[in-house]
Amino acid sequence: MNDEIFQLINRWAGHFSFLDTIMVVASNSVPYISVAVVLFLWFYRKGEKGVERPYTALYTALTALLALSVNVVIHLVYYHPRPFVVHHVHQLLPHSSDSSFVSDHAVLAFSIAWMLLFRRDRWGYPAFVWAIVVGISRVFVGVHYPADVAGSMVLSGVMGIFVILLSKSKRFELFAQFLFRLDHTVIKYVPFLQAYCHKELDKKG
């Protein structure tokens, strides 16, 4: 079924230039969008969830870091060849022939989506749709199987739950407050960022 779904999605590659462009951009832009989203959450404090967003940024970054670290271990102990290694595929992006399972790009996207959902942020559902599009794009461009994306979704979700549980501890809160104080100390010297200084925050959610 994994191969069948892959072929069903990947066979559309190379036929419509606009669709190819959309999928390539969706796939390649993940690291940049992920960093931008975390920075937005860290600095933007307006609106109903504004005071909670620095915590959401921290939780999201930790979720992604943990999930990517686990994926490094998975790649070390389990090798699954990428689609273009064992099949004739429509490959739109160059990629090394390292292990396919799981997808780092999808891990980043689902780390953001899960944490926004867990934190009940209004951007959670749009982020989840974006993560699904990212996952489909990785299959579309020929570098991952659907199971790689599904594995990324599960891995990110599990790490997100772990971070949420970890955040309930006093030590984690001390760590968070240390980061907020450090941030306040540094950016108070940057004029255009002074409005976004993080002093100690009351823990939310």
Question: Would you kindly provide a written description of the structure presented here, covering whatever features stand out?
Answer:
66% of the residues lie in helices and 0% in strands. Helix 2 packs across helix 7, helix 4 packs across helix 8 and helix 6 packs antiparallel against helix 7. The longest helix has 25 residues. It has one domain. With 205 residues, the chain is an all-alpha fold. The chain contains nine helices and no strands.
Order of helices and strands: HHHHHHHHH
The percent range for strand residues is: under 5%
The radius of gyration is: 19 Å
Number of strands: 0
Mean pLDDT over the residues: 89
Report the helical percentage.
Answer: 55-70%
Structural class: mainly alpha
Query: What is the domain tally?
Result: 1
Shape verdict: elongated
What is the straight-line distance between the termini? 40 Å
Question: Tally the helices: what do you get?
Answer: 9
What are the low-pLDDT stretches, counting only 5+ consecutive residues below 50? Answer: none
- Mind summarizing the main beta sheet? none
Structural topology:
Blueprint (H helix, E strand, L loop, with lengths): L1 H9 L6 H12 L1 H14 L9 H25 L5 H4 L17 H15 L5 H17 L5 H21 L3 H18 L18
Helix pairs in contact: 2-7, 3-4, 3-6, 4-6, 4-8, 6-7, 6-8
Essential attributes:
elongated, 205 residues, single chain, mainly alpha
Outline:
This protein has 205 residues and is mainly α.
